[in-house]
Specification:
Blueprint: E1 2-4, H1 27-30, H2 33-37, E2 63-65, E3 72-77, H3 84-90, H4 96-104, E4 120-125, E5 131-137, E6 144-151, E7 154-161, E8 165-174, H5 179-186, H6 190-199, E9 215-225, E10 228-242, E11 245-253, E12 259-262, E13 282-285, E14 288-293, E15 298-302, E16 305-308, E17 314-316, E18 321-329, E19 333-340, E20 344-354, E21 363-364, E22 369-373, E23 383-390, E24 393-395, H7 410-431, E25 436-438
Length: about 450
C-alpha cells in the first residue's frame, strides 16, 4: 500500500489515464487556468469535474497489450536506482542480440547516462522476448528520443523528433521527512521540487526549517508525448506552508520578456540573497565566536556555516555579484569570494574545483554554479564553508536580514492583479484536496 498524502495527482491533462486521480474542490476553478497562467497556445487544459471519491488503483511495473501483429506493447516509468538491464527485464525483453547491441552501439550509449526518474520507456516485444522497437526520451530540452528498431538488417539506433504538447499539472503533498521524500511520494518530479526550493529559498532554509506536517501545492507545465512525460518546465504557482506560516509565489512575465515570482501584492518573492548556497545538505558546524577546530585542535571563532555534502555537490552563488577571488588561499583551500552591491561579500571555501567559466572579474547571477564541494585546505572531510560579510564584518548567514529584490512597477501591477486572484483561489482549492490512496 502506497499512501500519497493530500495529493492532487498529476493531471497530465487531458489524458484519460489521469481522470479520477485529481481530488479538488470545484470545477469552476479549472476554467480559469488558461487566463490565470497565460500559457502557450499549445497548452492543453483540463475542463472536467473534480471527484471527491477515494480510489484504489493498482500500479503494475509494466503495462502490456497484445496487438493483432503478435507484438506486446509495453511501457514502464523510470524510478530512482533503475538500471538499463533492470528496465528491459521489467519490459519482458529477453534478447541477447539487444544486450550486445547496447554495449557496442555509440548511439545507444546515451541510455546508460540519462536514466531520469519519471521518464517513460516504451517498447514492443514479441512472445519470445525479442525486441521489435524501443523509444527512450532524451534530455537536453529538445523533444526527441532514442529510437531502437529491428530491421531486416538487424538492430538500428537513431535520434528522432517527437510530437509534443504542453500540459498543466496540479499537485499537493505533505512533508514527513524531507522535501524530496514528499515529492517522491506524491509523484512530483525532482526538478519541480528543486524549483520549489529555489523559489522559497530566501524565506525557508530547507536544511533546517522543514517540519513534519508542512504542506506544499504546485501548478506547473510539462511537455508530453502521447500522454507520456518528456520533461518538466516552469512552476506557474506555488504555496508552501512551513511551521504554520504560508508562503505563496506566482509567475509573472512582463512585455519585456523578463519574468519572476511575486506574492499576491506584487512584491518579489526572490530575495537579494539565497539562505544557502547548496540545494540540500545538513549543517555540520554553525556560526560561533568560540568553536573547537578539529584540525588545529584549538578553540577559535567560526565566522561562517559549514554544510556537509558529498564531494562534487554543486555550489551556487547566493546573490548577483562580481568574482573578487577564485583560487587557493590558506585554510580555505580552493575558495571563491564574490563582491555584491551594498558592500556585501560572500565566501565559499574548501571547494574541490571551480565552474569552467569562473574567473576574477566575472559577473555571476544568483543561482549560478560557481564550484563544487570538496575538502581542500584545513578540512577533515568534504563540506562547504560559507561566509556572509557586510562591510568586512562577518554576519551569521542563517539570521542576517536579507533584502528583497525589486517589486513590480505600477504599470505591471494592473496586469498582474487581473490574474493573481484566480491563481490564489486555485491553489487554495488544492490545499483542501482530499487524500488519495493507491495500492
Amino acid at each position: 500500500m502506497r499512501s500519497i498524502l493530500n495529493q492532487a495527482k498529476p493531471l497530465s491533462l487531458p489524458h484519460p489515464k489521469h481522470s479520477g486521480l485529481l481530488i479538488g474542490s470545484a470545477a469552476v476553478m479549472m476554467l480559469a487556468v488558461a487566463t490565470a497562467f497565460g500559457t502557450s497556445q499549445d497548452t492543453v487544459l483540463y475542463s472536467g469535474e473534480f471527484s471527491s471519491e477515494i480510489e484504489k488503483i493498482a500500479l503494475p511495473s509494466a503495462l502490456g497489450v497484445v496487438p493483432t501483429s503478435g507484438l506486446y506493447a509495453r511501457e514502464i516509468r523510470i524510478q530512482r536506482g533503475d538500471t538499463v538491464s533492470g528496465l528491459l527485464a521489467a519490459l519482458g525483453v529477453q534478447d541477447n542480440e539487444l544486450s550486445s547491441f547496447l554495449v557496442q552501439s555509440r548511439e545507444a550509449e546515451v541510455m546508460f547516462r540519462q536514466l531520469v526518474p519519471g521518464r517513460t520507456l516504451t517498447a514492443k516485444v514479441d512472445s519470445q522476448g525479442n525486441l521489435h522497437s524501443l523509444a527512450f526520451p532524451l534530455n537536453g530540452g529538445k523533444d526527441n528520443a532514442l529510437m531502437i528498431q529491428r530491421t531486416t538488417e538487424g538492430l538500428t539506433a537513431q535520434v528522432a523528433d517527437l510530437q509534443s504538447e504542453t500540459v498543466v499539472s496540479m499537485q499537493t503533498a505533505e512533508i514527513n521527512h524531507s522535501l524530496f521524500g514528499a515529492a517522491d511520494e506524491a509523484g512530483i518530479p525532482d526538478s519541480i521540487a528543486t524549483q520549489l526550493a529555489d523559489i522559497f529559498g530566501g524565506d525557508i532554509d530547507f536544511h533546517r526549517d522543514l517540519r513534519k506536517g508542512d504542506r506544499f501545492s504546485v501548478i506547473y507545465e510539462s511537455t508530453t508525448h502521447m500522454g507520456k512525460p518528456l520533461r518538466t518546465q516552469r512552476i506557474l504557482a506555488a504555496e508552501f506552508i512551513n511551521d504554520g506560516k504560508t508562503y505563496r509565489a506566482f509567475w509573472y512575465q512582463g512585455k519585456d520578456g523578463n519574468g519572476g515570482y511575486y506574492g499576491a501584492d506584487g512584491s518579489s518573492v526572490r530575495k537579494a540573497f539565497l539562505r544557502s548556497p547548496l540545494e540540500f545538505s545538513r549543517i555540520s558546524s554553525g556560526f560561533s565566536n568560540s568553536r573547537y577546530h578539529p584540525v588545529l585542535r584549538e578553540t577559535r571563532a567560526h565566522r561562517g556555516i559549514d554544510y556537509a555534502a558529498p564531494t562534487g555537490t554543486r555550489v551556487k552563488a547566493t546573490g548577483d555579484g562580481v568574482v573578487e577571488f577564485a583560487g587557493i588561499q590558506g585554510g580555505y583551500g580552493k575558495v571563491v569570494m564574490i563582491r555584491h552591491a551594498g558592500n556585501k561579500t560572500t565566501v565559499y571555501g574548501h571547494l574541490s574545483g571551480f565552474a569552467s567559466s569562473l574567473k576574477k572579474g566575472a559577473r555571476v547571477s544568483q543561482g549560478d554554479v560557481i564550484g563544487f564541494v570538496g575538502a581542500t585546505g584545513l578540512a577533515t572531510g568534504p563540506h562547504l564553508h560559507y561566509e556572509f560579510r557586510i562591510a568586512g564584518v562577518h554576519r551569521n548567514p542563517l539570521t542576517v536580514a536579507l533584502p528583497p529584490a525589486a517589486p513590480l512597477t505600477q504599470d505591471q501591477l494592473a496586469s498582474f492583479r487581473t490574474n493573481v486572484d484566480k491563481q490564489i483561489a486555485l491553489v487554495a482549492g488544492m490545499r483542501d484536496a482530499k487524500t488519495v490512496m493507491l495500492d
